[in-house]
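Please produce the structure of this protein holding 2-keto-D-gluconic acid.
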Amino acid sequence: MSKPIVLSTGWMMPLVTRQIEEAFEVHWLNKISDWDRLFAEVGPRIEGVCTGALTNVATTADMIKRMPNLKIISNYGVGYDSIDVPAAKAQGVVITHTPEVLNEEVADMAVGLLIATVREFNHAEAYLRSGDWAKNGEFRYTASLRDRHVGMIGFGRIGKAIGKRLEGFGVPLSYFGRKKQADVPYPFYDDLVAMARDVDTLIAILPGGPATQGLINKPVLEALGSRGIVINVARGSVVNEADLIEALKKRTIHSAGLDVYVNEPKIDPAFLELDNVTLLPHVGSGSQFTRDKMGQLVVDNLLAYKERRAPLTPTPDTPFKGW
Ligand code: 8YV
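Below is the modeled complex.
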């Protein structure tokens, strides 16, 4: 019996590649130059897509239309903003993702990035490596987490894991979101400018996509003020990068720590010119331990489709209603 066809939008880790190649006939967009021809020849027989932000290939409405028998898009990552959700929904396609398994890893990284930014680990290490420590004495004094109030932009699963850590650090918290959560004791804001005015540190951990595009913009940064620090571990799109770069350049905020960017991996070169931003290459969930768990979920969701079982982790946008 022939294997069902899966399209991968790009490179996948060996754990995923090995298992999907065993169970499916896999076509790899990163190994094909003529995508038009692929969709013309194979498109109507494709049943599954394997994708993730790391492939840097969006699963567009046009692509989805060219796969009329598509049943499942298995996304490597909890965020699935690189997939055209309305188009998938309209065609009855289930999108699955990798929630929960990365919560603690991303929260660890977010707090690490926060402290690295506040205490300027990048400059401190450069000071040691250059020999300046031995020559000129101790490194200059930095900002501190001790006198800060953090405003969480988004307080979902990962936001709560970050909150738990910061509570342990004795840092006061507030949160911004669509609605107040009954079981959360921290001050709630549905107005981001108002929260930015009342805190001095923002941590963004909310979904990307059209609803949150450019949310952290000039008015928010102005409200945050000169002590302000912005940490983004969500998606580059939630920040208006031109406004952030201007605020960093003019030092109308103190600094930023970024793991995500609008154009990954070709980030705006203006960031590289700034000395008050700590830059990471989207490493939030990037440990072998956590990536193995994410990868296995990607495979298990596809296998569930193949065996006509319910998918393990469908997104809330595309609840499973049967294959
Ligand atoms: C991954 C992420 O780096 O889960 C997410 O949404 O951003 C990260 O965990 C990314 O999805 C890899 O494709």
